[in-house]
Write a structure and sequence with these properties.
The complex is a heterodimer of chains A (about 350) and B (about 400). Chain A is built from ten helices and eight strands. In chain A, β4 and β5 form a beta hairpin. The longest helix of chain A is centred in the N-terminal third of the chain and has 33 residues, at about 85-115. Chain A has helices at about 1-20, 25-50, 85-115, 120-135, 140-150, 210-240, 240-250, 255-285, 295-310, 310-340, and strands spanning about 160, 165-170, 170-175, 175-180, 185-190, 195, 200-205, 210. Chain A has a domain at about 1-50. With about 400 residues, chain B is mainly α. Chain B is globular. The chains are: A alpha+beta (about 350), B mainly alpha (about 400). At the A-B interface, α1, α2, α4, α5 and α8 of A face α2, α9, α10, α11 and α16 of B.
């Protein structure tokens, strides 16, 4: 609707009013904006009247939730808690996914991006194939594929054991748990163990267990986002003048030193703004966790909407949550951007 | 012969074994490649049971589309092939390297012919190839007395309405019966066209000097970009019927709602991309056009926009590719609507094919990949033609 109005205002502005109605730009502009504002106001009033027949209050969030959530992190949630608690559990799950996802996809992305410019022909070709294949396949398909993959892992009775450090099964992946003393001193590392209890129930009894859903969505997000970050890194490195590398070679630095000390610090300036965009995309893409049942904020709000209705207020909450997460990421990345920017710019 | 060995040896030493680290890397990479290629070919040629794709091919490509109405789709394919022929002639004026751009299409057709073993379908595909060659060899510009470029733009502009007409005349097929790969193509096509048009309008609105227009466009763009597309699809499913006037509410079916959401969502992103292009146009250009006596409309449409859009073609195409991939999200939003991925999931739910997800997902991935890769190649060649590519 708003679009029609913009179009008609523009048309009006250019074809009718210009030579016919008002002679000065200022008066014409004010009038046009007035008309536009009135139309916008009418539409808002209409939408508001329509929406006011629906439920608009936020008090449904304080009711008892009444559903259980599989994944939890930092919160102590049970079905008797309020819906706000359920939603917060979802938010924390999303935050956990986003933090781990951003860290891993940056690592993999930089690695692949550098590999795309490697002097080694085979490494270069493998990196190119990775980027060209992964970038052009829908993320949702990849996530569903990884989910099927993790579900097809061996059962917990026949778990895969990698040097007693990582245990993999379709019940989740167990990593060693690191216990910290106050002040960040590592006091103990507990190895993951699978035990069979007296009534023949096999489960992980120690270690840090990553659930299957988390692993699947993480694999999907990281592998997908890394292919985009790799392209950004490659473009940034290629944009640097060749003289930088040559000068570093002339100084006798080896290729790793050139990369670490000369190329990457300079490329970082070009990399940060588009990579910030990719981080925001990753944050929004984390909502695809809904298809595999990882209880992120979108899944939880979907359950709440199914149980209680109230779609419009719930959507306002969702938009605000995603927006504040994006805002936070932007602030952090802008801080980094300022740190690496050229002095004087 | 001897010099060949010397040359290939020096190539190998330069590209694979130049230092100790490189030798190690080469061996790791080689073993990885051999392992991957080996297990992939074992899977594709030996262990995979492609019957699941063979049996469900119609479901995957067309979904619940009625069998007796298939001729509508074939006519659309003929028309698109005809137009492709005309366009191909236009873009390949002096160079044959553009053949590479439509090679994914030919590959795709070959792939389709192979598993089906249906004389009728092979015949119809051959007919569409004939249409392509007719389009290529027909002196259409002389018949219609039009410039080749105008003919192209005009032809592609009427293609989508024409396809909708093909699908709707003489009884027609309801949108709820659309499905499979065909549905993905239609959704992406509609999304790209309307997303681009409205994105252009919002970008101009955001750059407008009128504060009310500027702020309302900014508000729209920022709100749409705040939430993920899945959320918007879900929102459209739940809320749009309640907000529309009662006369329209029943007419806006799910397909239309999805198309509206995809277009509105893409428009916000495209507006941001074009805004970047608008900012890249030098202020001197606008001043010069004003000095020539052009009015605001002429300055925008003849001077600013062509330069702005030209500068952002790569970003625009990657947004279109993103939209193409995002058509799968209907599945995530839980809409009762079978696009390709949804059809694949329902094929996997059949009793005899349970657990054969590798085959299905590989086939679906290939279908998506072909179009995305073709689009990115096309954008690459456009960039090259326009001289945007500085890498050489």
């Amino acid at each position: 609707m708003a679009i029609i109005i913009i179009v008609s205002t523009l048309l009006l502005r250019y074809f009718v009013i210009k030579d016919f109605f008002f002679r000065t730009n200022k008066r014409r502009n004010y009038t046009l904006q007035g008309i536009y504002l009135i139309l916008l106001g009418l539409i808002s009033i209409y939408l508001f009247v329509k929406a006011s027949k629906l439920e608009l209050g936020f008090d449904f969030l304080t009711n008892e939730a009444g559903f259980a959530l599989a994944n939890q992190w930092l919160t102590d949630y049970s079905p008797t808690n309020t819906r706000i608690n359920a939603y917060l559990t979802g938010v924390f799950n999303t935050i956990r996914l986003v933090i781990v996802g951003i860290a891993l996809s940056t690592l993999l992305g930089v690695l692949v991006g550098v590999a795309r410019l490697s002097s080694n022909w085979l490494v270069r070709k493998i990196a190119t194939a990775y980027v060209e294949v992964i970038r052009n396949i829908p993320l949702l398909l990849q996530i569903i594929f990884w989910w099927s993959f993790t579900l097809a892992l061996p059962t917990i009775k026949e778990y895969i054991n990698i040097f007693d450090i990582v245990l993999i099964s379709n019940r989740g992946t167990a990593l060693p748990e690191i216990l910290f003393f106050e002040g960040g001193v590592i006091i103990d590392i507990i190895r993951p163990v699978v035990t069979t209890s007296t009534n023949n129930v096999v489960s992980y009894t120690s270690g840090f267990v990553i659930s299957t859903e988390f692993l699947a969505i993480l694999l999907g997000l990281v592998i997908y986002t890394a292919s985009f970050i790799a392209e950004i890194v490659r473009g940034a490195i290629q944009a640097l003048p060749k003289g930088q590398t040559e000068a570093a070679q002339a100084l006798g630095l080896n290729s790793f030193q050139i990369l670490r000390l000369i190329i990457l610090p300079q490329a970082l300036r070009i990399i940060i703004p588009p990579v910030t965009n990719q981080y925001l995309n990753l944050t929004k893409n984390s909502s695809l966790a809904v298809v595999i049942g990882y209880s992120d904020l979108f899944l939880v709000s979907g359950i709440i909407m199914n149980k209680a209705g109230h779609a419009i207020p719930m959507f306002i909450v969702i938009i605000l949550t995603y927006q504040s997460m994006s805002f936070l990421i932007s602030i952090i990345m802008n801080y980094f951007n300022k740190k690496v920017a050229l002095v004087g710019n | 012969m001897n010099s060949f060995i010397v040359r290939s040896n020096s190539w190998l030493i330069k590209n694979l074994f130049s230092s100790k680290l490189n030798i190690l890397l080469s061996f790791c990479a080689m073993s990885l490649t051999i392992y991957f290629v080996w297990s992939l070919s074992i899977f594709v040629f030996i262990s995979a049971d492609w019957k699941v794709v063979d049996v469900n091919l119609r479901l995957l490509l067309l979904g619940p589309f009625p069998k007796e109405a298939e001729w509508r789709i074939w006519i659309s394919i003929f028309w698109v092939a005809f137009m492709s022929g005309i366009t191909y002639k236009n873009i390949s004026r002096f160079q044959t390297k553009h053949l590479f751009n439509i090679s994914p299409l030919i590959l795709f057709i070959l792939f389709l012919i192979n598993p089906v073993n249906n004389i009728m379908i092979t015949f119809l595909l051959a007919l569409s190839l004939v249409c392509l060659f007719i389009g290529y060899n027909l002196p259409a510009n002389r018949i219609f007395k039009l410039n080749q470029n105008t003919l192209n733009i005009l032809g592609w502009a009427i293609t989508l309405p024409l396809i909708v007409v093909f699908l709707k005349i003489f009884g027609g097929v309801e949108t709820t019966k659309w499905g499979g790969y065909f549905l993905n193509i239609m959704l992406a096509w509609v999304g790209i066209i309307f997303g681009f048009i409205f994105g252009l309008i919002f970008a101009i609105g955001r750059a407008s000097s009128l504060p009310v227009v500027r702020y309302s466009c900014t508000f729209y763009i920022e709100v749409i970009r705040a939430a993920p597309l899945v959320a918007w699809l879900f929102f459209a499913y739940l809320v749009i019927p309640d907000l529309l006037p009662d006369i329209f509410a029943n007419k806006v079916d799910i397909a239309l709602r999805v198309m509206i959401v995809l277009s509105a969502f893409t428009a916000a992103y495209i507006a941001e991309i074009i805004r970047g292009g608008l900012q890249s146009v030098a202020i001197g250009q606008i001043e010069a056009s004003k000095a020539l006596g052009m009015n605001g409309y002429q300055t925008t449409s003849l001077i600013v926009l062509p330069q702005a859009i030209r500068a952002v073609i790569p970003a625009l195409v990657s947004q279109f590719i993103a939209l193409w991939k995002d058509t799968t999200l209907i599945l995530a939003a839980g809409l009762a609507f079978r696009e390709l991925l949804g059809s694949g999931k329902s094929a996997l739910a059949q009793f005899e094919f349970i657990g054969q997800y590798n085959e299905i997902y590989m086939f679906i991935g290939l279908l998506f990949w072909i179009v995305s890769f073709g689009m990115s190649r096309l954008s690459f060649s456009i960039e090259k033609d326009l001289g945007l590519n500085q890498e050489g």
